[in-house]
Amino acid sequence: MRYICTGCHKEQPVNPDRYRCECGGLFSLSFDKTAPDFSQTAHASDRSLWKYANALPPIDPQIVHETTMGEGGTPLISLGTHLWGKADYYMPTLSFKDRGAVVLVAAMRSMGVHQCVIDSSGNAATAVAAYCTRVGIGCEVFVPAHTSAKKIEQIEAHGAEVHRIPGTREDTADAAIAHVEKTGAFYASHIFNPLFWEGTKTYLYELFEQFGGALPDLLVLPVGNGTLLMGVALALKELKEWGLVDRFPLVIAVQAANCAPLAAAYLAGSVVVHEVPSQPTLAEGIASARPARGAEILQAMHHMGGRFVTVTEEEILASRDALARRGVYVELTSAANHAGYLAALREDGQLGLLDAVVPLCGAGLKSAH
Q1: 242-255 pLDDT, tens per residue?
Q2: Residue 6 C-alpha from the chain's centroid
Q3: Which of 13, 77, 179, 206 shows the smallest number of beta carbons within 10 Å?
Q4: Model confidence over 337-365: pLDDT tens digits?
């Protein structure tokens, strides 16, 4: 298993002391993997994402056993004609971030990491803190001061030390990186470390199973720092290389109108993200005005032939209420996904004829509102 710099393309061993290349570039990950036998995994007694182990980073099965809480295997819920929600809030810490966190933390344990730092708007930190406490890794969490009190309470319950940082999500990331540089702790970043995507890609593996060895026509994905989108892009690339799909679904990437630098860049035809004036948004999980992997996200969207939509605060609240009236109570960032689907439908009514899936990323009890 090796890191490959996305800037200078240099390969190097996975080193717990390094979170980016000496040239300043960010890492992708390379290791030997083989296609899962989806005809078998669809009926496996193990419903967790570890049933795809031959396509995941090579980690000692005993360490996996000590780390896992059975994450993965989440159901599809009908939300209307041709529309399903994938209920990733069924995860152990109530958000989809468990997919990436369990792979990252298991890898950390195999590397002998004893102390880590993560910055997050809440859910990623909660997941990393939960898995770290299972395997005895100390965890310091940096969150924006305005993060939902419910998320902070959950993080602290797992024994992590929380640092509340005034200002923006970007200020929080800067503070965490400064602390990593000062202390030498492992940077367990769901943004910087590509091990996290190896977990989030299993979202698409499961959809491939649930749609009977095919993919839905349309995928709606939330995009702030791109954790889920980059995992999906990776899985699509793998499925195509393995000859299991010959085309990509239409990908609709959703940003809050109050904080939409990626949507603005994509609309302008740019592959460079410029920080844009932003306002606070209820969708705190995608409130990133300066996404560290912005260029990679845009390149992935161009490669997949996707499109962006933005949603207002009012649309987010309306979708949260509409989903609740269908028995599905999700946090506001997840409601933004449903609002994004409706926004795309208003732009192109023909999309309503396509089988579509929106991720229900986090439980409603996590939201402050």
Answers
A1: 999 999 999 999 99
A2: 19
A3: 13
A4: 999 999 999 999 999 999 999 999 999 98
